[in-house]
């Protein structure tokens, strides 16, 4: 329980920091590229995780990563257009929580 609380606090801090950095629609001023590039990079990482979990025989976790990647790609398109306020993270956060529970269940099963 404490571990989950710490993880959620860390996530909340990261999200708050990210919102402040990107609130003006400029993203990282020293970085070239589009506003949604970080979201696209994360989506690619999630695609890789989905593939690995599918190969391990865990399609439930894989499908969550596939959906999270789709949400990140949609957010990237909106960010590229400077429409940061239109990005809805509610489903993404629900999936993160679901994924956390799935990972914990998976660890208990194999430990």
Q: Quick summary of this structure?
A:
This protein is mostly helical. It has helices spanning 2-22, 37-55, 59-80, 90-110.
Structural commentary:
With 111 residues, the chain is mostly helical. The chain has helices spanning 2-22, 37-55, 59-80, 90-110. The chain is elongated. Mean pLDDT is 80; it is low at 19-26.
- Whole-number average pLDDT? 80
Strand content: under 5%
What would you call the structural class? Answer: mainly alpha
Order of helices and strands: HHHH
How many alpha or pi helices? 4
Poorly predicted runs: 19-26
Shape: elongated
List keywords for this structure.
single chain; 111 residues; mainly alpha; 4 helices; elongated
Q: How does the SSE layout of this entry go?
A:
Elements: H1 2-22, H2 37-55, H3 59-80, H4 90-110
């Amino acid at each position: 329980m404490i571990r989950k609380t710490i993880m959620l606090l860390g996530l909340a801090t990261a999200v708050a920091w990210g919102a402040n950095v990107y609130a003006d629609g400029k993203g990282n001023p020293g970085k070239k590229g589009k506003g949604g590039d970080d979201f696209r990079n994360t989506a690619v990482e999630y695609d890789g995780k989905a593939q690995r979990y599918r190969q391990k025989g865990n399609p439930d976790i894989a499908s969550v990563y596939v959906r999270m990647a789709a949400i990140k790609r949609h957010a990237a398109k909106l960010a590229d257009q400077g429409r940061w306020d239109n990005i809805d993270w509610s489903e993404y956060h629900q999936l993160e929580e679901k994924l956390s529970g799935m990972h914990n269940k998976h660890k208990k099963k194999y430990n």
